[in-house]
């Protein structure tokens, strides 16, 4: 007699290229017989989660593994720096070749993408409409991708207010698993505070703030399991390391989550 598959609400945090580790986490969960029937994501988590919800995660992972530094650079459609370095259209147009646009409400599982409305300083939750529109808003990293202008709102990356959106899980009876991309850093013994430059100090401060937001969300909405990816596991654009990051996510999931009995 086959055992019933345990249903999972999977929360995928934001964090640039290190979010490719989400793919490895999902691969491990599926191998262990878990059934993911809800995904909540912001930024790269919304993208990977959207691919999974569209049954195109394998295609996304295989495409990511082929990327070189040069190919990543070619995906950057530079624009007026007043509004952001990149339009983001070239990335999403390329993703159209990997998986199609669909309405979120037509997906086989519950999918939620989270963006930030800077105009009104609030979270915006996408649970219906175009999955591409939701992803585009959710990945709009301030200063990197141009924001998405809508009526009475100005949408940017969901991670600005909530890098780990556990508060938007709808299926409370599910096993909740969070993938936090703002885990404690891999220690580098050559790094000392006195050697911080203005740039590294700015980034260190930003990551410290994100870690505190994620830690607060984990405390307020404690998941059953948390897979923590070190925040310095990869820089924001290191998608050429996708194969390594997928393997990292797989191993971190295996260490953090108990296999099903």
UniProtKB/TrEMBL annotation:
Cross-referenced InterPro entries: Acyl_Trfase/lysoPLipase, NTE, PNPLA_dom
Signal peptide as annotated in the record: none
PNPLA domain residues: 10-170
Organism: Sphingobacterium corticibacterium
Annotated GO MF terms: hydrolase activity
GO biological process: lipid catabolic process
Entry keyword set: Hydrolase, Lipid degradation, Lipid metabolism
Active-site residues, record numbering mapped to chain: 43, 157
Chain ranges for the short sequence motif GXSXG as given in the UniProt record: 41-45
Protein name from the UniProt record: Patatin
Sequence motif: DGA/G, positions: 157-159
Domain of life: Bacteria
Motif (GXGXXG): 14-19
């Amino acid at each position: 007699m086959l055992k019933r598959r345990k249903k999972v609400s999977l929360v995928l945090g934001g964090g640039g290229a290190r979010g490719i580790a989400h793919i490895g986490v999902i691969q491990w969960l599926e191998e262990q017989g878990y059934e993911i029937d809800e995904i909540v994501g912001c930024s790269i988590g919304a993208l990977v989660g959207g691919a999974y919800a569209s049954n195109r995660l394998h295609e996304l992972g295989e495409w990511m593994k082929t990327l070189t530094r040069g190919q990543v650079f070619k995906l950057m459609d530079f624009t007026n720096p007043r509004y952001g370095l990149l339009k983001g259209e070239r990335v999403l147009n390329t993703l159209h070749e990997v998986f199609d646009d669909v309405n979120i409400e037509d997906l086989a599982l519950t999918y939620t993408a989270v963006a930030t409305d800077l105009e009104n300083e609030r979270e915006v939750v996408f649970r219906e409409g175009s999955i591409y529109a939701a992803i585009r808003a959710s990945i709009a990293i301030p200063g990197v991708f141009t924001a998405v202008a809508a009526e009475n709102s100005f949408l940017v990356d969901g991670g600005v207010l909530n890098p780990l959106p556990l508060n938007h899980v709808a299926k409370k009876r599910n096993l909740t698993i969070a993938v936090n991309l703002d885990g404690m850093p891999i220690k580098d013994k050559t790094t000392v505070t006195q050697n911080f430059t203005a740039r590294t100090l700015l980034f260190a401060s930003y990551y410290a703030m994100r870690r505190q937001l994620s830690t607060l969300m984990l405390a307020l909405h404690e998941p059953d399991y948390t897979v923590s990816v070190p925040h310095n596991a990869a820089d924001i654009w290191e998608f050429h390391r996708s194969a390594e990051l997928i393997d990292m996510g797989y191993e971190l999931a295996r260490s953090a989550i108990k296999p099903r009995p």
